[in-house]
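Homework help board

Subject: predicted structure for assignment chain

Our instructor gave us this sequence and asked us to write out the predicted structure in token form, then describe one feature. I got the tokens but I'm not sure how to describe them. Can anyone check?
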Amino acid sequence: MKYLDEYRDAGLSRKLLDGIRSLVTRPWVLMEVCGGQTHGIVRHGIDQLLPPEVELVHGPGCPVCVTPVRMIDRAHAIAGRSDVIFCSFGDMLRVPGSESDLLTLKSRGAAIRVVYSPLDCLRIARENPEREVVFFAIGFETTAPANAILAWQAREQGLTNLSLLVAHVRVPPAMVSILESPDNRVQGFLGPGHVCTVVGYEEYEPLAARHRVPVVITGFEPVDLLQGILLVLRQLEEGRSEVENQYPRVVRREGNIVARQWIDRVFEECDREWRGAGWIAGSGYRLRPGFEAHDAEKRFDLSGVISAAPGPCLSGQILQGAKKPHDCPAFGHACTPEHPLGPTMVSSEGACAAYYLCGRHRDSRRP
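My token output:
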């Protein structure tokens, strides 16, 4: 397959590893931001092949995982109403809220539908004019353009029974939050390839300069990841803090102009709550004025929704790079893909799911 096989070349991967080993002179801690990168690193054992001086920690790179319990409970409150058809991507169905998950609500009779495109909701709303149709709009900047088009089309088509429960988050403010944490150990980032495909990486340049941290926008195959790590380490060893693009076959500095225009047309920046990080200023999107009729948080009274305190799951700390999956006493025992306690085990991009699927739970088994 074009632009795939060559990025899985074993010989080139060995050369990049040799370059990393010969370059490193002291310990460094790097964070990959994207959950797809986490799965690539764990699946190919890249973190285990690196020299001991280089530690990789996993960042908040999974939108399913960073969605806080409060927002999930709000989704459940709406989905449980008899007059609502609640639409969501499938990866949200098993994420636990305070009491249940969407899949359990569906089994109890709630009208919950899995959609494969946000625009599927337009047809569902037209076919069910007597029901409220709500789409759970989560994601980083990557999914924001399609969700923006849904809101725009709902307004243009006069679909007064269609709304969005918006939980969009933005990556750069979350990276700043990590860097400004008093417990931060991260010294360099592998930047999110998919996000930057949409919005580019101009916003990362002042971040890198202000915090004196290198950011290398990186792809997802072994050669991508190893080259990204090499470029970050080279900057650190040379005392540089710049933004570099390892993923030019997909990412441009300005991103996708049309997609960015759709985001700006429909959404505006806002403060947003993140699982494990709390509220982060300017880290989310919300619908602009003029789309209030399609804002589920304004259409439904959610004031009575109360969320429970976090249980034993350490997903919040894992998402901040403070812990790794095997640091959680529940990992691989009480928490498995069949019986997940938190979103990092549920999501296809979650760090706990990556570790479990690659057999690393066996290292944490208790007698």
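Reply (TA_rk): Your tokens look well-formed. For the description, you could write something like this. The mean pLDDT is 92. That's the kind of observation they're looking for.
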